[in-house]
Amino acid sequence: MLETVGIIVMLAFIAAAIYTVHAKLWVTKTFGYNYVVVVKDGVTLPDLASNAHLKGKVRVVGSSDDTCSVQSHLNDVELKKILMADYRLSDEQVFIRPAQLSGALGMM
């Protein structure tokens, strides 16, 4: 009897883990990855929403003078290359950091 309960609990944990991974993959596919774009060395952050190369690929969530939160289907390397090329920034002037999702999916 105890073995049966243990097997049921183990199967429930496996099902919950599969459901959690599936939900996170769906959110990432639908909304993209979350990044924080940071510029250094006195560079002012350009208006990413008006960049022609980023139209439809980046959604600006919030920004300040030198930091911007974005959602993008691009990976961090591609996003950094576009920013460096379009705004003539060096590798030391722009940083892309993954951001934590808020809400229940952010804890996964």
Automatic annotation (TrEMBL):
Protein name per its UniProtKB record: Uncharacterized protein
Source organism phylogeny: Bacteria, Bacillati, Bacillota, Bacilli, Lactobacillales
